[in-house]
Amino acid sequence: MRALNITAIFLVVFCSLLKAQSTLSRNVSLNIERQKLSAVLAAIEEKGDFRFSYNSNILPVDSLVSIHENNLDIAEALDKLLGHQFEYRQSGNFVIIRYAPLELVLLINESVGNPEIYTISGQVIDKRTNKPIEDASIYEKNLLVSEISDGNGYFSMRLKNITQPISLTVSKENYKSTITHFLAEVNIRPRKENTGEAFISGNLDDVEKTWLGNALVTAQQKIQSVNIGGFISKAPFQFSLLPRLNSHGSLSGQVVNKFSLNVIGAYSAGVDGAEIGFGFNIDKSDVQYFQFAGGFNMVGGDVRGIQIGGFFNYVIGEVRAAQIALAYNRVGKNFEGFQVGGIYNKVNQDFSGMQVSLGLNDIGRNVDGFQIGALNLISEKQEGIQIGLGGNIIKGKSRGVQIGGIANFNKESDGLNIAGLANYTATTANGLQTGAINYAKNLKGVQLGIFNISDENDGYSIGLINIAFKGYHKFSVGTNESTRYNFAYKGGSKRLYNMLMFGMNTKPSEKMYTGGLGFGKEMSLFRKISLNPEISSQLVYQGSWAVNLLNKFELPLNIKLNKWLAIQGGPSVNVYYTKQNTRIGEFGLLQEKHRDFTFKDSRYTGWIGWNVGLVVL
Questions:
Q1: What residues contact residue 335 under an 8 Å CB cut-off, 6+ apart?
Q2: Per residue in 15-64, pLDDT tens?
Q3: What are phi and psi of 42, to 5 degrees?
Q4: Rounded distance between C-alpha atoms, residue 201 and residue 301, angstroms
Q5: How far apart are CA 259 and CA 205, in angstroms?
Q6: Is there a contact between 322 and 338 (Cβ–Cβ < 8 Å)?
Q7: How far does Cα 485 stand from its chain's mean position?
Q8: How far apart, in whole angstroms, are the C-alpha atoms of residue 319 and residue 491?
Q9: Which terminus of the chain is more solvent-facing, meaning fewer CB atoms within 10 Å of its CB: N or C?
Q10: How far apart are CA 74 and CA 48, in angstroms?
């Protein structure tokens, strides 16, 4: 029976080793001359149908390499490219390249016990110098039991409930890992798989580099991350009081849990189910499905599902989830979903979804969705609806709807900008700007406001005062059938210009003053001749501030005399409304001077008129 058990153990170990080496033992042929190492590694990935994982800081990815070999296995090819200072591990469909120029040795002092309790003690030393190695990680990955060597390299480990051969792995930063198999007499029987090896790419120590992670993660857990960061295992359950007091010990940072219950807080590799922390949750990699913390959640990888933090959520990777925090949410990469932050939401890259904050929403790149906050800030492009109770700032292009309680700022706009006070577009505005004050460097859309300002105007400005610094500017002096002296400023664009108008009669018994606002359009007929349909409305002062309103439609013909001067003249249709029927002093009554047609309402009078004058271009 003992021989049968040992044979079975050898078969299990052999099969596991064969499976582990399946990727690294694949053959590739390479014929490469002076190409970047990163490109060569990408070519090997494609040939071998797997992915490399490595830290680019320790791998010379920009160095030029040459290799001309046929039918090399991948491990041999890597040795020829990198020398013998690295080691390679397979985990899932990944091959992890780890810098390891040194070698260590595991010396076993004691290895005794039975399937219920088995004890292993020994020492870890440097192979070349025979000096003890401190802070080496010794772990049994199936049982999730680990120890760290002391200052003299010694360790002692107790294993319980052994149901398969013991494989003890020793890892230390800059050393090649070793695996020692213990062929103890155990009863091998089928068991339910509660753990399994997994691999998650990326920088797995990012959370430890944050000030909160550095303060709350224990020194032993940090050592394990440095020594065996590429190894990530799975477990069905974790219970934790504090990061240092949990059911996985110092190996908790290497374990992805289906369910984790954390009384105060915990540090884990990730969650593939649900995690509840009454204080905080810290996960070095991905979180999936549900995570709740009374204080905060900190995740080094990506989040999928629902994440709720009583104070804040900080995700270094991407988020595709509903994310809620009473204070703030911070996402290192892209966000897709629903985000609510009481004070502040920050997404470093793209945002797609709905975002609500009582304070600031800050997006590092693009937004395609709905935002509402006191202030919304986008670094590149917006294609949704943005509502800022105070204002909205887009450093790039706005293609959606901006609604700002005070102001909207953007570099370029193709959408709708609505502001209580002002809209500002630094370059080109192709959409609609509506606010008390509107500015666009290059207007190709529509401005609707009291003051509309642009450098170049090739659109439509509708307001009390329209100024285009490099656009349409004309001054006219003329006379018409009602007032002898008339002055007007015309500004905007040929498509639509605004007119500020003033007129007067000084002759006794006909004295009056007019002033008002109008709009016109220049229609070129020939090279020096244009037709300018204009519509205007002017208040008429006849000694009284009664409501006297003169409405005109004019159709003057403009003929250029030279670069600076033109003459104009044409017919007009006039409709006059007045509540003043009594002369005052030397002032006249306009309705007595003209009456070509009448209306049922006696307060209205109409007539056909004319105008003629000079235009300064």
A1: 318, 319, 320, 323, 347, 349, 350, 351, 352, 353
A2: 444 444 567 788 888 888 888 888 888 888 888 888 888 777 778 888 88
A3: -65, -40
A4: 9
A5: 22
A6: yes
A7: 60
A8: 50
A9: N
A10: 8
